[in-house]
Amino acid sequence: MVAMLNSFTMYKPYTVFLSIGGFFFVLGLIPFIHYLYLVLTVKNPNGAHHLQSLVIGAVLLNASFVSVTLGIVANLIRVNRSLLEDTLEVIKREQFMTEARPEEASVQSLTSGIRADSPKRIARLD
What we know:
- 7% of the residues are buried.
- The protein is mostly helical.
- The radius of gyration is 31 Å and the shape is rod-shaped.
- The chain has helices at residues 2-11, 13-41, 51-100, 102-112, 119-125.
């Protein structure tokens, strides 16, 4: 179960972290909506008595913001990992090609050292 959640978080970070952030956002709005309702409907809402619920609501809204921020960072890490995987694949493919055909690698190393401003050197190699 933990491995499934870990892999799901690695490959779909927006889904995980935005759903957690949305959950905390809704929970954080409930105390504020309740307090707003009391202020608008009751003549004496006794605001000091609702301070604890407003603090809890603020903490939950902060947790929502942190979760969304972690989702953005996790997505950036996912993109970086996929770019690194692609780069590693290209490097391994080039390394395999040079090991498989050493005669082409030696020709490429000879031609890579030739400067374009010296056509006389190119004529001597032929």
